[in-house]
Design brief:
Layout lengths: L4 H18 L22 E12 L15 E4 L2 E11 L4 E18 L2 E19 L7 E18 L5 E3 L2 E15 L2 E11 L1 E6 L3 E7 L2 E11 L1
Antiparallel strand pairs: 1-3, 1-12, 2-4, 3-4, 4-5, 5-6, 6-8, 7-10, 8-9, 9-12, 10-11
Length: 225
């Protein structure tokens, strides 16, 4: 997997930012009711449930020869469900797990012809780190990063059997919580998730550029306890 230079720089920046937060001088010193930096109390669990939609970032594939002679594949916007459990180590930094499901309808195309070949489902298991640097009244912005695995499967609408590979998952999210009270928040989040692999057709043809990376838009609730 190739990571371009700006993306690598972003990962390094976030990593060292998190390390500095966890260092001996990284604890927030403001009072609980009036703090400006660091939103969450240590040793707090967050459980979240969000729904939304996922938008593919590009054509699914430009190399689908073997599926009825077509040469390009595309995926549509699909539903997205996300659940998470996070634990705060200090006022800034949380660790936990996300599990995310999405589904996209898939078409193959050749000039003006289009054929519905089925839908792909993805279950992503995502160990996650989250940084909450500041609170703005009842609004709490954050950024999170996840690394894990995309488990891909396919439901065919044609006679050909399509088998997408499982892939390495990398996810970067930005979001905001609106605190209703000490134990409840409503949430909105936007995230990019990488899901780039290959697929086999009838165990004979290999499609090398099967890419269902997406931007996800999520809305839901979180509980704090």
């Amino acid at each position: 997997m190739n990571i371009n230079r700006p993306l690598l720089q972003l990962i390094i920046f976030l990593y060292f930012g998190m390390v500095s937060v966890l260092g001996p001088n990284g604890s927030a010193q403001a009072a609980h009711d009036h703090q400006s930096f660091g939103e969450i109390q240590p040793n707090v669990w967050i459980l979240g449930a969000r729904v939304g939609f996922a938008v593919p970032t590009q054509s699914l594939s430009h190399d689908v020869v073997g599926i009825a002679g077509f040469h390009q594949g595309s995926a549509g916007i699909g539903p997205l469900i996300n659940v998470q459990a996070l634990y705060s180590l200090n006022r800034w930094f949380l660790l936990g797990l996300m599990v995310e499901w999405e589904r996209h309808g898939v078409d193959v195309e050749e000039r003006r012809l289009s054929l519905d070949v089925g839908s792909q489902q993805t279950v992503s298991v995502l160990p996650t780190v989250e940084l909450r640097p500041v609170t703005l009244g009842s609004f709490v912005p954050y950024v999170n990063m996840s690394f894990g695995v995309n488990v891909n499967s396919f439901s065919e609408a044609i006679s050909a059997e399509i088998s997408p590979s499982n892939t390495f998952a990398w996810r970067l999210g930005w979001g905001v919580d609106y605190l209703v009270n000490r134990h409840l928040a409503v949430n909105a989040e936007w995230a990019y998730k990488r899901n780039d692999g290959h697929a086999h057709v009838d165990n004979r043809f290999r499609i090398n550029d099967w890419n269902l990376s997406s931007f996800g838009f999520l809305f839901g609730v979180k509980t704090f306890f």
